[in-house]
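seq as requested:
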Amino acid sequence: MRIFMDMKCMYGICGLALSAIAWGQDLPLQTDEQRAVLRHQSSVVFDLVSPISKKLSKSCVWVWAGGTRQLCVGTVVGDGSQVLAKWSEVARARGEKIVCVGEGNETFPATIEGVYEEEDVVLLKLKNSTLKPVTFSPEQELELGQFLVAAAPGDTTLGFGVVSVAERSLRESDQAFVGIGAETHQDGTGVIVREVAEDSPAKKAGISKGDIILSVNGQIISGLMQFRSLLSTLKPGENAVFRYSRKGENLDVELKLAAKPKNAAFPQRRLEVMERMGGDISNVRDGFPAVIQTDLVLNPEECGGPVLDLKGNVVGIMAARAGRIRSYVISASAIELMLKRAPVEESMARVKKEEPGPKLAGSREV
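struct tokens:
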């Protein structure tokens, strides 16, 4: 219990500094002394969370191709002879033998039993497994700000962070669409509209290029990320009240949100460059039917493993790294629903690919 209390206190005290530790990055304008303190804190934090990760020492594996290339992490399920892993990463094996490596370098040959395409999850079958399946906690609803730990074989902790956006769908047909290209306003107040799509809710409501959106349904907008997170809680067909500023005058307008059209595409290269600033991001990082957003930062080849809360409950698996400080977790309840479906055969499964926007400088579409 002491460990969990210490961790909660540490997160509250360290704030941004702890986030920098988790991301493996130094904060700007730091002195050498401050950097040394952060690095020491990093070691302390990992020592504290390691007993949590150790609870799953025999319930997760490294997934390798041909014994030479690490593909991802896997979560042991079923009777202990099955593993859930990230399909788009495992597909990179390209015919090489797949091997799962557990605690103490125990090795198990694996074959592909099936694929859950929407979730980008593959079900592997292990030979002569001695591993222990995880017990998911599907009844537990994760709260905003709740602390999470990403585990790997042994007592390895891959990362730690918090829930930043509640569970939602990332499928385009489930996302509310406004029809603007926007970016954070330079003074940190709202987002400035750079483009408005034809026949979009924004266009019909009279929002124009140069307008500054200040709030949605009374919630103040501080920047583009917060604006997008707020919109993600709304659904197509709902009405929303936008307050915006035009030439110093504040105006309110109610618009009806639409479903995102397939051909909607404002230039996104600038955002993609920003997303990659902290390192590699997953090839498949969008379109999931249900995920929780976190600030856990793992490498793409570290996705697929179990995610725990501070009590050691398995609350999901790591779905993807999507940006410098943005990643997705498939919740335990979503996984259990997924496992009730029959996976498709490997020969019938496709590998989704994230399609980049036009290669032009521009703003972010919402």
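Confidence is low (pLDDT under 50) at residues 1-29, 354-362.
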